[in-house]
């Protein structure tokens, strides 16, 4: 996985998965839209409201250069 100039192996026997805690994020908009049946763009909201809160801004510039990945969402 690569973000900016930082490139790391993730999710193999030799490397830890990318872990996203998700407890620091704000689930309010996601929950509201889910309950209203209007959650059309979960990916965009998840990135903006959850991932950025957990691993920081600039996460939109990530690249996955390998052939398989393990991501843990806790």
List descriptors:
single chain, 74 residues, 3-stranded antiparallel sheet, two-stranded parallel sheet, 2 helices
Description:
The chain has about 70 residues and is α+β, with helices and mostly antiparallel strands. The chain is about 30% helix and about 15% strand. It has two helices and five strands; from the N terminus they run E-E-E-H-H-E-E. The protein has helices at about 30-35, 40-55; strands spanning about 1-5, 5, 20, 60-65, 70-74. The strands form two sheets. The protein has a three-stranded antiparallel sheet with strand order 2-1-4, with no helix packed on it. The protein has a two-stranded parallel ribbon with strand order 3-5. Strand 1 and strand 2 (about 5) form a beta hairpin. The relative contact order is 0.32. The model has no long low-confidence stretch (mean pLDDT about 75).
How would the global form be characterised? Answer: elongated
**Strand order of the biggest β-sheet:** 2-1-4
How far apart are the first and last residues' alpha carbons, in Å? 19 Å
- The total beta strand count reads 5
Uncertain stretches: none
SS strand fraction: 15-25%
Described by strand count, sense and barrel closure, the largest sheet is: 3 strands, antiparallel
Structural class: alpha+beta
Summarize the structure.
With 74 residues, the chain is an alpha+beta fold.
SSE layout and pairings?
Layout: E1 2-3, E2 6-7, E3 18-20, H1 28-36, H2 42-55, E4 62-63, E5 71-73
Parallel strand pairs: 3-5
Antiparallel strand pairs: 1-2, 1-4
